[in-house]
Amino acid sequence: MAVTDSLSEKSHETEPRDPSAAEANNTPETNKLSPAPDGGLQAWLVAGGAAFIFFSALGYVNSFGVFQQYYMTHQLSDRPADSIAWIGSVSGFLQLGMGGVAGPLFDRYGATGITRPAALGLVVAIMLVSLCKEFWQFILAQGILTGAVMGFLIFPAMGSVSQYFDKKRGAALGLVIAGSSVGGVVFPIALSKMLHETSLGFGWTVRIMGFVMLPCLTFSCLTVKPRLPPRKTSFFITRAFKEPFFLILTLGLFFGFMGMFTPLFFIPAYAVSTGVDPTLASYLVAILNAGSTFGRIIPGILADKFGRLNVLAAAGISTGIVACCLSTVTSTGGLVVYSVAIGFTSGAILSGGSTAFSMTTKNPQELGAYMGMGMALSSIAALIGPPISGALVARYEGYLELSLFSGISCLASGFIVLIVKAITPEGIFGRT
Fold first, then answer.
1. C-alpha span between 166 and 36 (Å, rounded)
2. Predicted confidence (pLDDT) per residue in 275-295, tens digit
3. CB neighbours (10 Å) of residue 277?
4. d(C-alpha 352, C-alpha 170), whole Å
5. Belongs to which family (predicted)?
6. CATH 3.20.20.70: does it fit domain 41-225+235-422?
7. Percent of the chain whose pLDDT exceeds 90
8. Which of 164, 210, 342, 356 has the smallest count of CB within 10 Å of its CB?
9. CB 76 within 8 A of CB 137
10. For residue 278, what pLDDT is reported?
């Protein structure tokens, strides 16, 4: 392919898909912005700092399956599974939902004044979790406080990285979000070991997690910073809600989030119900997150080459197929293979959604707002998905209905993304 053709294809990937959005973004201020360097020491330091944020914040959240299984047999043994799942759901909802505020704040004020208080708040929240004994205490500390401060960490991180990368944005965000998968391997194994095989107890086990995060978040606070000056337009970009591309993409991510968190929350409990040892069952969360590490890096690279919407649609459909098969897996070996498979396929949904939202605007100063608002609307699904799954387990006393609910939700996500492709200038068969 000629160099000019390649450059033309790449330029299409960053153009807004809605004509009104293109006109709004075509301002003298936007045209004066320097192009993203797509590499260099500063860019990769920002990406490294963002990866440590995801390692600490989402790595901890991705360990909730271990907490779910532990709470069901210890502090909250008198509570049904769907009730306990609300702790993780509230956290997952707020960490994405706060993007509606954190994204525009980043666009207007940069990252430093947001990430540093949030990093301190996350460590404090984890220390408070270590003291919890009652359900309402877990909801406040592990659900509301932890989820809210995470939102003020992850969106400035993604916004900063997006300003430094354009043609390689999918790969860069994939590497950054893969930090959550690495954390999702480290934290579940450490939690399981300390909870089940030592005399540390719950309190000190959780506190140690906070101490592990402290140096990681310190590095992030020193390195994550925006490349561009803040925008001075309105706080919320209301025209986004008139753009079909943005609205339908948000709906697609809604169904993706509805289904993708279910295996992460319930696979340890399902494994225990089949006779697997609780310690080994907890390791399945780590195995799932190990699979999602590659599921976030490899599809991110492929997205830059073959189209960001193509990869996101494939992720939704493949995750739906795998999720529907959960209740058919009954052996330990099968559960290990299943965890790797669902981790790989679902890993591209979050990273793919982030890169897809970056296609909605040509102005890099608005990336934080578009990502934040889109993820905030989609995050409602993260709030209601796991409790619905828990209620299905309690109602039918099995996991078939849970797996079908998760799988059909993800399948719907993939097909809705294909509708998004259909309204782009390139069409459903284009490289978008």
1. 6
2. 888 778 878 888 888 888 888
3. 12
4. 8
5. Belongs to the major facilitator superfamily. Monocarboxylate porter (TC 2.A.1.13) family.
6. no
7. 28
8. 210
9. no
10. 79
Question: Which pTM does this prediction carry?
Answer: 0.74
Q: List pLDDT tens digits, range 252-266.
A: 999 998 998 888 778
Structure tokens at 420: 């998004």
Give the C-alpha separation, 276 to 269, whole Å: 9
Residue 66 near residue 282, CB atoms below 8 Å: yes
Angle at 348 between CA 96 and CA 71, to 5 degrees: 55
Domain-wise residue ranges, the chain: 41-225+235-422
Within 8 A by CB and 6+ apart from 172, the residues are 43, 47, 161, 164, 165, 300
- Please provide residue 311's backbone torsions phi and psi, each rounded to the nearest 5 degrees: -70, -40
Residue appearing with tokens 């890169």: 355
* Size of the chain, expressed as the number of residues it contains: 432
* Contact predicate 386/81, CB 8 Å: no
